[in-house]
Amino acid sequence: MNLFFFGGTFNPPHIGHYKIAEKCLNIADKVLVIPNNLSPENKLLQTEAFHRLEMLKILFKNTDVIIDEFEINSNQKNYTIHTVNYLVEKYKDYKITMVIGLDQLKKFNKWHQFEKIKETVDILCFNRGNIDISSDVYKTHMIDKNFHINVSSTMIRDALKHREENKIIEYLNDDVLNYIKKNNLYVN
To answer: How much of the chain, in percent, has pLDDT values that exceed 90?
Structure first.
């Protein structure tokens, strides 16, 4: 049995995240989305984990995607290796694949215990644009090199902050956008 997991801040979750999970559902027995609590990269203040979790639940409400709260429930910074170890222990009968975007693959060799990660799980990389990279990097299998949903959560946050919703409306699920508005997220 195959388990694919897709981690990140999902700040906010957008259609690109949805489309990646949708493609994974077509080739895996189980797909987990794992939002983090405290990023090891010490990014600027993130939206509270509660809101990011709620938006993920809204985005994936009519799918078979499982939202796993392992990292959200942790009170420490989680490195991917911690999540990999958790999944290996919990899903002993599964072959585990980590799903990442090309932006993350390019800096993968800087991740904490990246060698151990690549020894333990396969890596499936989605190319967000027309960037060429070897498909053999770290046991990686590029999928859909023409994945053309070139959007980032950063771009969405910036547009929301500057009240330029028209620039990003196509990249957000309507219910997620309504949640963002109702809770006044990303306006400061």
So the answer is: 62
Closest to 180 (Cα-Cα) out of 79, 56, 71:
56
Provide the 3-class DSSP secondary structure of residue 33: strand
Pull the structure tokens for residue 133.
């990279």
Q: How far is CA 118 from CA 23, 84, 126, 151, 187, in A?
A: 22, 10, 17, 26, 38
User: Can you tell me the distance from the alpha carbon of 105 to that of 138, in angstroms, rounded to the nearest whole number?
Assistant: 9
Token pair 């639940």 in the structure block, residue: 57
Phi then psi dihedrals of residue 144, to 5 deg: 50, 70
Give the pLDDT score at 142. Answer: 67
Are 80 and 112 in contact by the 8 Å Cβ rule? The answer is yes
